[in-house]
Each structure stands twice: as C-alpha cells, then as structure tokens.
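Researcher: Predict the fold of Transcriptional regulatory protein KdpE.
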Amino acid sequence: MNRVLVVDDEPQIVRALVINLKARKYEVDSASDGATALRLAATRHPDVVVLDLGLPDMDGVEVIKGLRGWTRVPILVLSARQTSDEKVEALDAGADDYVTKPFGMDELLARLRAAVRRAEPVGAGGGAAVVRTEGFTVDLAAKKVTRDGADVRLTPTEWHLLEVLVRNTGRLVSQKQLLQEVWGPSYGTETHYLRVYMAQLRRKLEADPSHPRHFVTEPGMGYRFER
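Model: Structure tokens for Transcriptional regulatory protein KdpE follow.
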C-alpha cells in the first residue's frame, strides 16, 4: 500500500484528496504548512508527495528543495500558478510533475499513479546491464549512478529519463516518445519539461554541461545518449 503526503492549506482540497485517495486504498497524511510537511516526510516516509506551492509559512519551492536535500520521493506539484516560468522553477527545484488548479481528480490520480510507478525499482526482468562511460557508470538494475566513485543523487524523473536514453544508446529518441514514456501517454508537447530535465542530467553527469558529450540534442527531433 502506497502512502501519500498531501500538503495544502485549503481544507476542502485536502478533504477531497484524502477521500479519493483512501477510496483507492492509499494511506494518507496531510499537512497545511511547509514545516509540518517536512517533519511528516521525515517521520512517515511517504511514497509520493502532493504539494501546493502557496503555503502560509514558506514557498512550496523551498519545501521541494528541503525534501530534495535527502530524499528522491516523487513530488507532484498542485498549484494555481500557471506561468511557464513558475512551472519550470518548481521542476528545476526537483518536482516531478505539475498540475494546475482547478484540476480534474481523475487526471491528478493518473499522474500520481505514474509518479509512483516511475519510482518503483527495476525488477529482475529489467536486466542487469551496467553502462560505463569515461566519467560515470549507470547500473540499470540497481537504479544507481556513480561518478568519480561517488553516488549521484537523481530524482525519480531524472532517473526514468536517463534509463530510457541509456536503454536506447546511440539511437535518437523523439521528444514525444520521451514525454510519453517518462510522464505518461497524455503528454507529447511539453518540451520544456525535457529541456529542464536534460539540463539537470547534464549538470550532474557531463564533464562540460554546456558542451555535452553523452546527452546529445537533435534540434526539433529529440535526444540521443552516446557512451
């Protein structure tokens, strides 16, 4: 059974989410402010966090940064902020998805299921391939990346994007294919998601992120991983 932490200061939204999630056999904790959310995340270890950005004590982006300091738990942002810059800021801070208010409950639950699915460990059938470059090593079975002998901390979405590219080493993966494999079948045009996450992967894994050797952009088409 998966545990969800709902962080929102609007009681009616929290109540609706709790009812719908419990009806689908999720365990649910809730918080109305950022400090409580961070404390509950540390003590209750949720499998996914649904987070409003407009909290009374701190900005939701600060909560994301606080969580990302120690956990890779999927974070689904739920916010009335709709500008592209604000979405990118949340994604760049470490959020895995972004749903704008008002929202449809079915869509939110579908995205939550996708976030949980992306974070699940690769099973035995996923292969035990280890892909090595001169700068870093990707262990697909263990969902682990090391660089210069040290573990590299990736968010679940960063890992899923990396995994799709590595499993297609040397082949162009289209923007639409990446979006649908990583974020779900309802995606296909949100190319700014890819730009944000590719920039993060390059920053964490490339020797020179501004001149990437391994994560190659094919303008207007997609991306390719080269060893």
